[in-house]
Amino acid sequence: MEFSTKDVATYYNHTVKDYQIGWQLNKSKGLHLGLWYDDTKNLHEAIVNTNKKIGEYLPGSKDLHVLDAGCGVGGTAIYLAQHHDCHIEGVTLSPKQYRMAERFVRESGMDEKVSISIQDYTTTDFPDQSFDMVFGLESICHANDKPAVYREVYRLLKPGGRFVIIDIFKTGRATLEKNRPTLEWLLRRWAISDYEQGEETQHNLTEAGFTNIKSENLTSNILKSVKIMWLRALFGVITIPLYTLIHPTNYVFSRRHPESGWALRKCVRKKLIDYLLIYSEKPV
Asked: How far apart, in whole angstroms, are the C-alpha atoms of residue 273 and residue 226?
């Protein structure tokens, strides 16, 4: 099943309340899984850890211009602006995310460093060579034509610019016909047409012109978040009848979104997905 950009926007418009209740959205300002280490105490710290991970890849120069391709409600953009010498452009497809991000930016006092717009990251209106770094945090997976994303990022980066992806990727096991229904269960709950395999992404990045491509497997660092999502999904399924009574809708993203916690856990346990960081550079 293929999802359009309108479907993706609708998914995020319809599930904001789920993330506010179940994922500390107003506090952590992040919809991503987060990264757990030995000293990580809670989900909020895990989400901040991912922001820190992105920050580690920022070039060392001053007055950086960075694009957050699929910025959600702006949490990572705000974090980078607060802790690094950079200006951030964030793009999202969701009007509801845009409004929340604008509010969070104002409340953080980062108005002069963070700008949010409603755009498709495959065809932005930014000029060529606008950015020192582009990153996609659990967002590139939504693109149907992922090579188009890489070509657009290549156009937007300055020579020597960096591209960082942190996302879910399917494994070879997910390509087996017997495992496809399990993966499809997750894809349909999150409005994703399909995941790439890590090797496929690296190949497509090379085809787009990127070099110095590196990959880091972070799957073990998300396992606690997967468990949390699964446990909260149990509660979410119980409350679905009440939710639909208060907010009548036939839209699948609203009615069956909690199932994603079950689907994600099953995909992880069957080793159908990995959580990877893939780094690449535009040649000088």
From this structure: 12
pTM, whole model, 2 decimals? 0.93
Known catalytic residue at 138: yes
Q: Record the tokens describing residue 160, joined without a space.
A: 């020597």
Q: Give, to the nearest 10 degrees, the angle between helix 43-55 and helix 223-246.
A: 120
For residues 65-82, one letter each, b for 16 or more C-beta atoms within 10 angstroms of the residue's C-beta and e for the rest, the string is bbbbbbbbbbbbbbbbbe
User: Residue 56 — pLDDT band, cuts 50, 70, 90?
Assistant: very high
Q: Candidates 3.40.50.150, 3.40.50.850, 3.50.50.60, 3.40.50.300; correct CATH number of 5-275?
A: 3.40.50.150
60-73 average pLDDT score: 93
- The per-residue pLDDT for range 193-217, each reduced to its tens digit, is 999 999 999 999 999 999 999 999 9
Terminal-to-terminal C-alpha distance of the chain: 39
Distance in angstroms (rounded) separating the CA atoms of residues 227 and 169: 19
CA atoms within 13 A of residue 211's CA, in its CB half-sphere? 6
Please pick, among 89, 138, 259, 281, the residue that the annotation labels catalytic: 138
Element (H, E) at 58: none
Q: CA-to-CA distance for 243 and 248, rounded, in angstroms? A: 8
Which amino acid is present at 144? N
